[in-house]
Design a protein that fits this description.
It is a single chain. The protein has helices spanning 7-16, 39-58, 64-82, 147-151; strands at 26-35, 85-93, 96-102, 110-118, 130-135, 138-143. It has two domains: 7-36 and 85-157, Roll (PH-domain like), CATH 2.30.29; 39-82. The chain has a six-stranded antiparallel β-sheet. The chain is an alpha+beta fold. The radius of gyration is 19 Å and the shape is elongated. 34% of the residues lie in helices and 30% in strands. Keywords: Membrane, Transmembrane, Transmembrane helix. The chain crosses the membrane at residues 38-59, 65-85.
């Protein structure tokens, strides 16, 4: 079976080899995140931006410093939101469905196996920008750009 993958999927496959059984072949890669609803990340950004701007305005720095402060506050809010997010990569192989944890910051660098599920474990259905699924007892969110690969998890489509 030929796999069509993006560059980030190829990197995930390369970096995940040490967590797979000898000879196990990856067929699909799906990136997901656990923790807070991804839409709350926007709320953290906005709250940080507005919050720091209000503080700067209160101390008399409302002009350009306030705009710069708002940008810094937004960045701080986004970093804080990241503390409530767990990043996952789900690999469908010829033998199983493997859920891996990877770091909060930086590239896709799997750190450990969270679950090894039977081959053909379905996930979905998926719809919307961020589809909510449950896999290995964890609520995960999958962005729509990965829905196509995730649809391949349905056992009838594997092969």
């Amino acid at each position: 079976m030929r796999i069509v993958t993006s560059n980030i999927s190829r990197k995930a496959i390369e970096r995940s080899q040490r967590f797979l059984e000898s000879g196990e072949q990856v067929r699909r890669v799906v990136f997901a995140q656990g923790g807070i609803n991804p839409w709350f990340q926007i709320a953290f950004f906005v709250a940080g931006a507005i919050g720091l701007r209000v503080v700067l305005a209160a101390v008399g720095m409302a002009g350009n410093a306030g705009l710069f402060g708002g940008a810094l506050g937004g960045l701080a809010g986004a970093l804080l939101a990241n503390a409530f997010i767990s990043r996952r990569v789900v690999l469908v192989t010829d033998q199983a469905t493997v859920v891996l944890e990877y770091g909060r910051f930086g590239g896709v660098k799997p750190t450990r196996v969270l679950a090894r599920l039977p081959q053909g474990t379905p996930i979905g259905p998926m719809s919307g920008t961020w589809a909510q699924i449950e896999l290995a007892g964890e609520r995960l969110w999958v962005h729509k750009k990965w829905h196509g690969d995730a649809a391949a998890f349905v056992p009838a489509r594997l092969g």
